[in-house]
Design a protein that fits this description.
The protein is an alpha/beta fold. It has 2 domains: 219 residues, Dehydroquinate synthase-like - alpha domain (Dehydroquinate synthase-like, alpha domain), CATH 1.20.1090.10; 166 residues, Rossmann fold (3-Layer(aba) Sandwich). It is built from 15 helices and 9 strands. The chain has a 6-stranded parallel β-sheet, with helices on both faces. The protein has a 3-stranded mixed β-sheet with strand order 5-8-7. Helix 7 packs parallel to helix 9 and helix 11 packs antiparallel against helix 13. It is globular, with a radius of gyration of 20 Å. The two termini are 37 Å apart.
């Protein structure tokens, strides 16, 4: 009886959130796309009257000289820059505070997140802390807790997966509690997103595959959840089609600029879908595994996705069937049951072809009840999942991820 009431309360919140997401004024970043588009960002920054930008990135990208083209164009446009390159793979609260201190010391007036989801998310939260100094990172956890607008933020993704360049969300880790949590607010959506496939040609195959499956997870969870609308469904369908057509090509041949460009667009579309329609249990479990073990987010999503889809296949059968058709692996007239199963098999097949493991090597049996509890705390009541999961069901699903 208590569980039945709880589920009804969750569904009531989902309905409220669906209405809210339909009426909230979600900004859409200006898009600069195509090979060499990173060189156009500096001019757009100059036109806005900005003088000194802080670039948030990591040491690996600096070592690869990936930002060189951006730095050159900033200099040519008489824009000063300061580089903060200490972002970790799972950015921490300390990364945010260090970046904020440097920004203030150098008297910057804007931010560029350059890299994968980690630098972009870190840049978002640095901006939130700068404009809201009285709010700690922990106090901004959850939905709509960033009070004042951030300094101008521009994003240059170097992976095609997170979609962070168009979303309301930023994910951060707290090493003290081994917690990984999201901050979500309309004020975190960047002004400009640069999708330049030339920045992605050097991505190692395993990063290409797992970030691509991250983008697919965004599209799928947004689509099968209960809060979608025409806009999010169209974006999720476009993302799925582009990923099915291009991810394995980019994985096999990293220099394929067409495949890279299409994957960058797929990531953007997936981000546009889930930032309005939310995600589900795949992300909730992946965030917990990332916080506890440091498991890369895209890898965790890829491994977990088929298990969650099997868990809710019957409830999401019609939507999965529609997504199979949109993705080009089915046709109208085939049964929803057959199409939904084919979609899940396609996900498993892509993982296998791209050598993504079927397990999480760091996972320990004794941690499973804690992981399940933390994942459900994140998911309930915010994520409008097609089938609501109990603690026991969540533990049983996570047990399938053991080595």
């Amino acid at each position: 009886m208590f569980w039945t009431m709880k589920k009804k309360l969750y569904r009531m919140q989902h309905q409220v959130m669906k209405v809210a997401s339909a009426v909230l004024p979600f900004p859409i970043p200006v898009l600069l796309t195509g090979p060499g588009s990173v060189g156009k960002l500096a001019e757009n920054i100059r036109i806005r009257g900005l003088k000194h930008v802080m670039i948030v990135t990591d040491k690996i990208l600096m070592g690869l000289h990936l930002p060189d083209g951006l730095l050159k164009s900033l200099t040519e446009n008489n824009i000063k820059y300061t580089i903060y390159d200490k972002v970790q793979p799972n950015p921490t609260i300390q990364n945010v505070e260090d970046g904020r201190t440097l920004y203030k010391q150098k008297k910057c007036d804007s931010l560029i997140g350059f890299g994968g989801g980690s630098p972009i998310d870190c840049a978002k939260i640095i901006g939130a802390r700068l404009s809201n100094p009285y709010l700690s990172v922990r106090r901004m956890k959850g939905l709509f807790r960033v009070i004042l607008p951030t300094p101008p933020l521009f994003c240059v993704p170097t992976t095609a997966g997170t979609g962070s360049e168009t979303t309301v969300a930023a994910v951060i880790s707290d090493p003290d509690t081994h917690e990984k949590f999201a901050i979500s607010d309309l004020k975190l959506i960047p002004k400009i997103a640069v999708l330049d496939p030339e920045l992605m040609v050097g991505l190692p195959p395993h990063i290409t595959s797992t970030t691509g499956m991250d983008a697919l997870t965004h599209a799928v969870e947004a689509y099968i959840g209960l809060n979608g609308n025409k806009f999010t469904d169209e974006n999720a369908e476009n993302a799925t089609r582009l990923i099915f057509e291009n991810l394995e090509k980019a994985y096999k041949k990293g220099t394929d600029l067409t495949a890279r460009n299409n994957m960058a667009l797929a990531s953007f579309y997936g981000g546009s879908a889930f930032t309005r329609a939310y995600v589900g249990y795949v992300h909730a479990i992946a965030h917990t595994l990332g916080g506890m073990y440091g498991v890369p987010h895209g890898l965790a999503n890829a491994v977990i996705l088929p298990h969650v889809l099997e868990f809710c296949r019957k409830e999401a059968e019609k939507k999965l069937a529609q997504l199979a058709i949109a993705g080009g692996i089915g046709e109208k007239g085939e049964s929803d049951k057959e199409l939904s199963k084919r979609f899940i098999e396609k996900v498993k097949s892509m993982n296998k072809k791209m050598k993504i493991p079927a397990y999480i090597k760091e996972l320990r049996e004794e941690d499973i009840p804690h992981i399940a509890g933390k994942a459900l705390d994140e998911a309930h009541p915010d994520y409008p999942v097609p089938r609501i999961m109990t603690q026991e069901e969540c533990e049983a699903l996570i047990r399938k991820l053991l080595p």
